[in-house]
Amino acid sequence: MSDGHGSTPGTPSGWASNQPPPYGNASGSPWTAPGAPPPQQPLPPPPPPQQPHGGQIPPYQSGPYGGQPYGYRMPPPALRPGIIPLRPLGLGDILDGAIKLIRSNPKTVLGLSAVVAAVGAIPVAIGQSVVLAEMGADLNGSGTPDGSQNVDFLSQYGGTLISYAVQFVAVTLLTGVLTRILGRAVFGGRTTVGEAWRLTRGRIPTLFGLVVVSALVMLLPLVLAVLLVLAVISAGADFGSAFLLTAVLGLGFLAYALFITTRLALAAPVAVLERRGVLASLRRSWTLVNGGFWRTLGILLLTQLIAGLTATLLSLPFTLAGTYIGFFGGASTASQISTAILIAVGGTIGAMITYPFQAGVHGLLYADRRMRAEAFDLVLQTAAIEQQRQGWVHASADDLWDPSITPAGPGPSEQAGRGAPWSPS
User: Fold this and answer.
1) What's the pLDDT band for 288 if we cut at 50, 70, 90?
2) Nearest Cα residue to 396 out of 405, 404, 385
3) Which of these, 243, 350, 365, 372, has the minimum number of CB atoms within 10 Å of its CB?
4) What are the angstrom distances between the C-alpha of 268 and each of 160, 289, 298, 302?
5) 3 state SS for 275-320
6) pTM of structure
7) Low complexity composition bias: which ranges (predicted)?
8) Residue 142 contacts by C-beta under 8 Å, 6 or more apart in sequence?
9) CA angle at residue 243 from 242 to 249, to 5 degrees?
């Protein structure tokens, strides 16, 4: 029945009776205007997650419902102005940084390494040339003069011992000089030979002191072990007991040598970069290795393996040629000189590559231990940002490594080294 306004009972006021319902048609389906496209169907529910590999749901899935969550951002890469990223280093960062140290400043690094390598290789080359000449004479049936056994012993082992002593001293000094170069190369700066020597020569007495103290610490237990074995043999012990005692003492000394070498491996970088004395550098190295002994030992052993294989491959052609000439040269003076030159050249080429690599690993291990124990990476990042703003690496970047100058030295709290930025002066 109409109320006079065109509406029917039960309909709201203002709606004509011939209009469709406001929220749908008579069948209850959503109302659409004539000619309008059909409404968009809602998305189907997401499929249930697959559970491969024993029912474990993978963290990220492909497809419209997989991938990263909304708002996720990858962390920005660490700042890398020089040979390493300024963050705690992994094994690959350390080995790559040691190689980049050589490539970033090849004239200075390889030039210094070649001089040190030649000084260490010449005594070995002379001794081996004499031994090869005498072995060649015996092989050809010409015989050797009286007393040749003494000559063999002195030429073979004497030259090797002298070479090891020279290498121990020279490599320690080279590590100090190259560590100074590395301290600048971390920020992308370069150092000339003259500047590196000028910055390091004041630390030469400390480096020599490190050589002497380290040698005493290493050799004193060895001497005591040898004296003990000789005392047991002189007391009439049988061969089996003497051999067993020698094997036990040898294994014990090997473990001791690995432990001491690892603990004191960072003493040379500390002496140069932090300008500490001999005993203070040894104590500082001992402290820095705390909490990372096995990792440091593993990296040092891997470095020795890589360096040994590389040196052998580089020197092998020269060693083979020198050995051939020494055997079949008739023990003449010319053949001995040629043999010595070839062996020395091979040893120099191999060592001039491996010495800076080893020194770089030691220096980067020192930097890594400080970044892990003292949040030193934040100080390096602040300095690198300031240097990028200025457009050059300031010479005062060398002072960054001194804990008495920079705020990120050893302190009661790690956070104490995170608050104060460094600015070059």
Assistant:
1) very high
2) 405
3) 243
4) 24, 14, 19, 20
5) CCCHHHHHHHHHHHHCCCHHHHHHHHHHHHHHHHHHHHHHHHHHHH
6) 0.73
7) 52-63
8) 331
9) 90
In a domain? residue 60: no
Amino acid 115 reads V
Which amino acid is residue 160, in one-letter code?
T
Q: Is residue 32 part of a domain?
A: no
Burial tier of 213 (Cβ tally within 10 Å: 0-12, 13-18, 19+): middle
Nearest-angstrom CA–CA distance, 120 and 355? 11
* Phi/psi of residue 42, nearest 5 degrees: -65, 155
What the block records as the tokens of 81 is 């102005």
**Domain-embedded: residue 76:** no
What does the block give as tokens for 22?
A: 């406001």
- What span, in angstroms and rounded, lies between the C-alpha atoms of 403 and 400? 8
- Joined together, the tokens standing for residue 9 give 């009972």
Q: SS3 sequence, 100-165?
A: HHHHHCHHHHHHHHHHHHHHHHHHHHHHHHHHHHHHHHHHHCCCCCCCHHHHHHHHHHHHHHHHHH
Give the DSSP H/E element, type plus range, for residue 39.
Answer: none
Q: What is the pLDDT of residues 318-349, one digit of tens each?
A: 989 988 887 777 667 788 888 889 988 998 99
- Of the ranges 53-67, 159-173, 352-366, which is most confident? 352-366
Rounded Cα distance between 350 and 355, Å, is 9
Total number of domains constituting the chain:
1
Distance CA 282, CA 79 (A): 31
Task: List CB contacts of 402: < 8 A, sequence separation 6 or more.
Answer: 273, 274, 275
Statement: residue 3 has pLDDT above 70: no
Q: What is the rounded CA–CA span in Å between residue 282 and residue 254?
A: 20
Give the domain extent around 153: 91-382
Lowest average pLDDT, out of 155-164, 214-223, 256-265, 406-415, goes to 406-415
